[in-house]
Amino acid sequence: MAEDILINVTPFETRVAVVEQGAVQELLIERSIQRGFAGNVYLGRIARVLPGMQSAFIDIGQERAAFMHLSDLRQNRVERLGGGPITPIEKILFEGQSLIVQVTKEPIGTKGARVSTQISLAGRMLVYLPHDPHVGVSQRIDDPELRQSLKTMVESLREENEEGGVIVRTQAEQATLEEMRADYEYLKRLWAVILKRLRTQPCPSTLYIELDLTQRILRDMVTPETQKIVVDSRSAVQRMQEWAETYTPSVRERIEHHAGNRPLFDTVNVDDEIARALSRRVDLKSGGYLIIDQTEALTTVDVNTGGYVGGRNFGDTIFRTNLEATVAIARQLRLRNLGGIIILDFIDMDNEEHKASVLSELKTALAKDRTRVSVSEFSQLGLVEMTRKRTRESLANVLCEPCPTCQSRGSIKTARTVCYEILREVLRESRQFNPKEFRILAAQDVVDLFLEEESEHLAKAGDFIGKPISLEVDPLHNQEQYDIILL
């Protein structure tokens, strides 16, 4: 399906929106002060080895130590492929040891980045594996003849007994041998530069920084279906065209400058879409809706019929709502960049054919996703479990922070609950101190409740302690905050 890529560039932030049929399907945001780490290569030092977890923490010179599991070690992969026993991590790594690692997952929440010793350098057509002689083809290319043809082309580029391997990317489906050769030579030169830095840099240090967002868009996201890349910055257009001229010549002509008076993102209401993507509720056209809750452990998506009653019967209404939800779910996963474990709670269906149709529709909708996904069958509880590879922060984690009012609970105490806490606190302090008066500073809703429905309890408390209790609204207090002043 034809798509456009819109890029909004400012000195402090770059935002990218992928648009299909006038609707935003994917959003990427990179801030100059918060550049991501995924793809970066570091010379790190082992800070701690944990045999019980078969993992290690590695100092890569960032704020938090990076995490590496036994499965992330190159030696472990070789042993698994060879069918031999796996060597424990404590026999491979030791504290203080230096090694070259690459970030495979961004730091998320309180967790540091995840790293691997299996280095891979991505180009437009190929992925170069300096330590792995394997030659493979992207699973998205499913034509057996084309797969074999591409593999033969790549093998012709490699020298005899060459150590490095290659994976052919989806973008190489229609690539010529010369385009692949240029990509391959570029990646080998890049690896040579990294090795040169490895011999001269102290430990820990950065050996390679991944391309910026605009360059990654040209390398990773532009496909034959991409009609145009529209950018609202002349300098960014020039930089992108220069980079494309060298590495992706076929893309250069599709890069355009947005010269209209109206802001680029306003032309397809991207900012409105971002606001909706930060909401828990997603309305469906039929009247049904989704509720999306994101936690550190997993993400849940609950499907509801809402006001939709358009089916011939209740079962048909449920089936149609679930079918519509599959497309919306696939879009929201891309839009919000939700990753990790995802639980889909469709409306219960008794008809097995309906279940199969919903699952098939879901997989079809997810096939457009550039990120690797895996979907299970319906469980006995009627849930669909799936995973989506998580390599960077979700949209909500990039744009939002934990709520200071509710202490990240997702809810706040009612005004009545706060009133009763205040009364208990007044009684507690009256036993320790003997002021002339107690003055309560609280939010407007709390004070209003004391003056109305809770006025009797407030008066009884004053009579019990034998002291007057006065009220004062503090506009700076949120509903859970209050102060008790002893006068």
Automatic annotation (TrEMBL):
Keywords: Hydrolase, Magnesium, Metal-binding, RNA-binding
GO MF annotation list: hydrolase activity; metal ion binding; RNA binding; RNA nuclease activity
SUPFAM superfamilies xref list: Nucleic acid-binding proteins
One GO process term, biological-process aspect: rRNA processing
EC number: 3.1.26.-
Enzyme class: hydrolase
Entry keyword Hydrolase: yes
Cofactor: Mg(2+)
Assigned GO CC terms: cytoplasm
Domain S1 motif: residue ranges: 39-124
Keyword Cell wall biogenesis/degradation appears in the UniProt entry: no
Family annotation (NCBIfam families): PRK11712.1, RNaseEG
Name of the featured protein: Ribonuclease G
Protein's organism: Candidatus Paenalcaligenes intestinipullorum
